[in-house]
């Protein structure tokens, strides 16, 4: 038996909840619309979350991993295998004698290739999820279990290491999917919240029964005066329900500033109206407009198709830090200016940076993809530049295309511009000259970086010790060679790194 990757889509996760929000904090934003694709993706997670949490918890597995794999393998339940065979995980073989033959993609030493195989056919999705758990309850996949892996990130990596998938980027895709949609929140729940929400909804309905009866009486009175209305079925009375919330997580908190009118918006322990009981809080008295605070989570609140953005803040009170939700107008994100570019860079191995799916400080949260030190390329091309100011300092980011990762955003400090002759690093220390140091010339600039370049040998240099001090390091871009600025006889010179003992 073997698992296979069928497809991957971008995804939103919506937790099921629902009442009316205050008018001043539930206004619809024109930029907060979501596509039909995102809605069916959310519907998919809602359809499997109860059984996924139950089965995962009973089998020492991570619900987040189970849900992410189901979405990844089945295209959120839309693949032919999921629709025709209720097979969400691409498990091959047969289930109680039932199978279906389908096309599939595999990965080998020469890359991806197409083939056909028999896949298990299940009577319902529940059997598919349970069979997945049973499949992992073997010694081969023991490292995927919660009691062994410890975190969903390690579990995802162990899946690939233990041979679950042939796609080399499989674990990365799972972790991205989990982080993007806050699926990790299910790892802390032994049961889902839908029953509580349904109970809350029922209580609201019971409390409003008198109003419902009054409304029905009015309808009946109106129907006596209108014969045509008597022939029409009675319309159900719409009940007040809790709002839904869609959560977006990032890899790190983002620094934002409090807006000029932040104090008019209340703080809450949950996104407003997503639970029957949500506690309201006042702002700390020492906070002022323009103060810097950190955001670690974003939520889209929805009621009757109207969306509003909320953020979770880390606020310091004495030595402790507390988290509160607030409407988006209370905070200001850095303004990011984008422009199209066509530039070539060399990845800076001396200054590796994390790469993200969005610009860090992006108002819809940014998730770390990987460190640039792990990219198996040297040169990259950028098609987009982003500039912004954070804490008063200018930042420049580029969107680069990296083989195996696609398009990612990275801080310009992690790149070397091929249009420049050299890149310099503020670094100081001491180094010992090698025995053959005299074969390397001394320069007043890194060679090829200045038209007034002067070269000299070691004649006239009074060297009493092979240990020399330096105050700057540089890379000659064209040849990717490393140079140091050293001090000799109270003068500074540039010399190749090859002149030093290794």
Automatic annotation (TrEMBL):
Keyword Metal-binding included in the entry's annotation: no
Stretches the record annotates as Disordered: 189-237
Domain of life: Bacteria
Entry annotated with the keyword Signal: yes
UniProt keyword annotations, A-Z: Hydrolase, Signal
UniProt-listed InterPro entries: Glycosyl_Hydrolase_73 (IPR051056), MGlyc_endo_b_GlcNAc-like_dom (IPR002901)
Low complexity composition-biased segments: 189-228
Signal sequence extent: 1-21
Domain spans labelled Mannosyl-glycoprotein endo-beta-N-acetylglucosamidase-like: 33-187
Pfam families referenced in this protein's UniProt entry, alphabetically: Glucosaminidase
Family from the record: Belongs to the glycosyl hydrolase 73 family.
Protein name per UniProt: Glucosaminidase domain-containing protein
Annotated source species: Apilactobacillus xinyiensis
